[in-house]
Amino acid sequence: MGAPRSINGQAAWHKWVxxxxxxxxxxxxxxxxxxxxxxxxxxxxxxxxNVGKTFELVKDVVTMGRDMSNDIVxxxxxxxxxxxxxxxxxxxxxxxxxxSTNGTFxxxxxxxxxxxxxNGDVVGVGETVTLHYEVAVAAPEIGGATxxxxxxxxxxxxxxxxxxxxQEMAAASAPPPMPEPPTAPMPQAFDLPPAQPAMSAPDPSxxxxxxxxGDSKRNMYIGIGVGAFVLLCCCCPALIAGFYYLFTSGxxxx
Length: 254
Fold this sequence. Notes:
The chain is built from two helices and 16 strands. The chain is an alpha+beta fold. It has three domains: 5-38 and 139-173, no CATH class; 40-136, Tumour Suppressor Smad4, CATH 2.60.200.20; 213-254. The strands form three sheets. The protein has a six-stranded antiparallel β-sheet, with no helix packed on it. Strands 1-16-2-3-15 form a five-stranded antiparallel β-sheet, covered by helices on one side. It starts with a strand and ends in a 5-residue tail after the last helix.
């Protein structure tokens, strides 16, 4: 694995099986982390002493052979003590024979010089051992955003990723700018309606009144009428009695 590189001088070392990571820090206090899973490589034994066993290729240089000091130990009579070597170059491995007795093969073709391996190739150790070469391409994994106090954009990566690739990744993954908070609209000036004139109280309608003298006369007439009626009521019996006496006494009869 190559030394870690960074955009603004900071560096970090992220190392695990076939993986690289990158951390992107943006302005406005936002950190956006994207884990870039690098290609992983493995050999799976198809024929030989350990059929089905998988050997993860995690080092830049991987040795194969019968000796226990090798990274991949092949305990088979066809395998030499130091049989072959795989070297990481770019996005794949290159295999070369180390002068083995029974030879190293790729897709049944004997390896006489370093040869790049492709996904799906079959590596042969002698004539009795075969291993399947596989390249697993992992999709990028995006982590959540966390709030920090950063002010500069920072991209840190490890592995064989170039600075240009990291810059392109950072530009593609940059979150949209934070929207500005809406401002409250200023109230528009408006004219006050003209003041309405005060409602004047209506003048009281003059009550039709009669002069005080007319009231007195009317009262006097009423009093006279009442007195005459009372007097008439009192005099009528006397008059009737007088007329009765005259008729009965014979004064008018002679």
